[in-house]
Write a sequence for this structure.
């Protein structure tokens, strides 16, 4: 490989973890290349994840509002209908604009972009099967593996995904038509977001979930409110239910279910089945063994607290390592890993990674849930404030939900924030910032918030946690 190009940093995978790491590396003066096999940058998130799902959620929410909420506001609309083709086109336009934007950022920051499949030839050599044919081998002083994740099949692959009738989230984002009936297997974030999209478009949506509640890691108090609001929107839930078989074809889909603790089998019929039972790390074809690396039982690459694998110059970040599978977590790790490579103090506070569900209302949380505090014996004060008592929410005629703040009983330091309600995904940023700076509930309660805003509900929940709120 005498003539092989040598880079200070080779990033394998151009998702939120990889592309952010590549840009940061180049900004810091490292000669950097990013290898991406999919033909466009942005990874799962921009191509088949966060971005297209939010485009569909936004459009279908507006459709739902026009049908159900406008009248109350005195807005009369007639013959509201859906142009499904245009809905999909707008989604694709958003995706194209954003993925193209990253290519522009690569050029601007002088990141080389290799379109192709990267794999280890040795710990310091990466072989790339180029998308337009041929091979290229490059030398790497440092490598960041950011190869992400893929949808997990059902245990035992009892209903194989064909992306036509039995779809993963990827297929659900690009259905050819609105299904009359949709069965969603898995009551987690992705299943509920996609279930909401199609319920708003008129599909009869049934969510089958093995556990006794949806989103099992969510703060318990919020879960039942959340389920009830989704039920009001027409989603049906079959909890404590196990999927044992099924199939899908042009003539229809069948899902065989039985109670989780065993019992009589039942067959559910549908037009489309969405398998949304989680995602698993992806390292296929990477030839990790040639770099002296392997994966754990769950397929993850093991790293230390500095995102370093057991081979010192090879790092790994994002969905392919432990922790929450979230785009912003991958991005934080990307920057921190580059800083570590440069001998700087890259750090990620995993306790302040927010999680958001972009249904309506949205659900957002950061830090400990009440159940976690109880099980760890941490003493806490709890402050709750309903949007029903928030003037902006009432003005907007959109007052479902609440803010819940959990603060340390002795120090008043905020330990967790959980919000269900309008704009929860934006509002949680204040909780994250507060926790990152070690704020006490009283600090937020004494911080002036503009009136009338939804964020006053957060202030009042903090007032309730350390003293008393004003408006309830
Ligand atoms: P990825 O985004 O998976 O990127 C990895 C990239 O590496 C891929 O593009 C892949 O093609 C490439 N690659 C893999 N192997 C190779 C190889 N050998 N050579 C070259 N390239 C390779 N997260 C949020 O935070 N908010 C959301 O709202 C949200 N919504 C989601 C909705 C859906 C439907 C889905 C599926 C996911 C959603 N996520 C969301 C999760 C989010 O998409 C992921 O956590 C995030 O994309 C992980 O980033 P990553 O860089 O680790 O991996």
């Amino acid at each position: 490989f005498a003539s092989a190009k040598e880079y200070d940093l080779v990033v394998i995978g151009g998702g939120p973890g990889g592309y952010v790491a590549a840009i940061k590396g180049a900004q810091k003066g490292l000669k950097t290349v990013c290898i991406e096999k999919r033909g466009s940058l942005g990874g799962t998130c921009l191509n088949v994840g966060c971005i297209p799902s939010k485009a569909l959620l936004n459009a279908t929410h507006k459709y739902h509002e026009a049908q159900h909420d406008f009248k109350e506001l005195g807005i009369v609309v007639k013959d509201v209908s859906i142009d499904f083709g245009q809905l999909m086109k707008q989604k694709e336009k958003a995706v194209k604009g954003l993925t193209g934007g990253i290519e522009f950022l690569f050029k601007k920051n002088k990141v080389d972009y290799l379109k192709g499949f990267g794999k280890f030839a040795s710990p310091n050599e990466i072989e790339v099967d180029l998308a337009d044919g041929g091979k290229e081998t490059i030398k790497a002083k440092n490598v960041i593996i950011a190869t992400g994740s893929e949808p997990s099949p059902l245990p035992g692959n009892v209903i194989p995904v064909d992306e036509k009738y039995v779809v993963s989230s990827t297929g659900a984002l690009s259905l050819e038509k609105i299904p009359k009936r949709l069965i969603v297997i898995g009551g987690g974030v992705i299943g509920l977001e996609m279930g909401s999209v199609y319920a708003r478009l008129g599909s009869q949506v049934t969510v089958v979930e093995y556990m006794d509640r949806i989103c099992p890691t969510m703060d318990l108090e919020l879960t039942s409110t959340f389920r009830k609001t989704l039920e009001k929107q027409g989603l049906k839930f079959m909890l404590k239910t196990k999927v044992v078989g099924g199939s899908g074809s042009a003539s229809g889909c069948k899902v065989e279910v039985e109670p989780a603790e065993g019992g009589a089998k039942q067959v559910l019929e549908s037009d489309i089945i969405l398998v949304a039972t989680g995602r698993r790390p992806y390292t296929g074809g990477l030839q990790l063994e040639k770099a002296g690396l392997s994966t754990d039982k769950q397929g993850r690459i093991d790293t230390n607290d500095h995102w370093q694998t057991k081979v010192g110059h090879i790092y790994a970040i994002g969905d392919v390592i432990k922790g929450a599978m979230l785009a912003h977590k991958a991005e934080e790790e990307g920057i921190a890993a580059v800083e570590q490579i440069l001998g700087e103090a890259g750090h990620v506070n995993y306790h302040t990674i927010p999680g958001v569900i972009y249904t309506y209302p949205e659900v957002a949380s950061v830090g400990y849930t009440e159940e976690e505090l109880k099980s760890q014996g941490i003493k806490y004060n709890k402050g709750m404030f309903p949007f029903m008592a928030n003037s902006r929410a009432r003005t907007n005629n959109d007052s479902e939900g609440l803010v819940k703040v959990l603060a340390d009983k002795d120090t008043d330091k905020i330990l967790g924030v959980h919000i269900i309600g309008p704009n929860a995904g934006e509002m949680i940023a204040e909780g994250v910032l507060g926790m990152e700076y070690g704020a006490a509930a009283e600090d937020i309660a004494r911080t002036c918030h503009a009136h009338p805003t939804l964020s006053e509900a957060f202030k009042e929940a903090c007032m309730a946690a350390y003293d008393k709120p004003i408006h309830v």
Notes: The chain is about 30% helix and 25% strand. The longest helix spans residues 84-109. The first strand starts at residue 5 and ends at 12.
